[in-house]
């Protein structure tokens, strides 16, 4: 697996995804291998390594959080609850900033 699945596979179009919300700078889509019954990933359309990356500007962060908020509101409306999670450091498998919005009990 590549180090940046999001750039190499999703944003390149090599791996097709089911889009939930798309803006000029942000993509939210159903996870290709979900860990939860509802599992949506929110990513910037440009490479940003993580939430701590110095090249993450405030405008992009606000765009990302706006989409995370919309997705979370949809999931809460449909499921009654959700989780919003991002990983950093050794917990971050793919070195591309992303959030997971999920609901339900873990599948695996």
Give an account of the 3D structure.
The protein is of the alpha+beta class. The chain has one domain: HIT-like (HIT family, subunit A), CATH 3.30.428. The protein is 27% helix and 22% strand. The chain has two helices and five strands. The protein has a five-stranded antiparallel sheet, with helices on one face. The radius of gyration is 13 Å and the shape is globular. The mean pLDDT is 95.
Shape descriptor reads globular
Number of strands: 5
| Radius of gyration from the alpha-carbon trace, in angstroms | 13 Å
List low-confidence stretches: none
In the sheet with the most strands, the strands line up as 1-2-3-5-4
**pLDDT average, as an integer?**
95
H/E element sequence? HEEEHEE
- The proportion of residues in beta strands is 15-25%
Outline the secondary-structure elements.
Layout lengths: L4 H7 L7 E4 L3 E5 L7 E7 L13 H22 L3 E3 L13 E5 L5
Antiparallel strand pairs: 1-2, 2-3, 3-5, 4-5
Overview features:
108 residues; alpha+beta; HIT family, subunit A; 2 helices; 5 strands; globular
What would a concise description of this structure say?
The protein is an alpha+beta fold and 108 residues long. It contains two helices and five strands, in the order αβββαββ.
């Amino acid at each position: 697996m590549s180090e940046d699945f999001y750039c190499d596979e999703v944003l390149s179009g090599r791996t097709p995804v089911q889009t939930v919300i798309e803006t000029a700078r942000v993509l939210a889509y159903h996870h290709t291998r979900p860990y939860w019954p509802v599992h949506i990933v929110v990513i910037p359309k440009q490479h940003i390594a993580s939430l701590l990356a110095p090249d993450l500007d405030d405008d992009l962060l606000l765009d990302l959080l706006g989409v995370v908020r919309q997705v979370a509101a949809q999931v809460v409306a449909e499921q009654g609850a959700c989780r919003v999670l991002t990983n950093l450091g050794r917990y971050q498998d793919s070195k591309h900033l992303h959030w997971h919005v999920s609901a339900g009990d873990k599948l695996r």
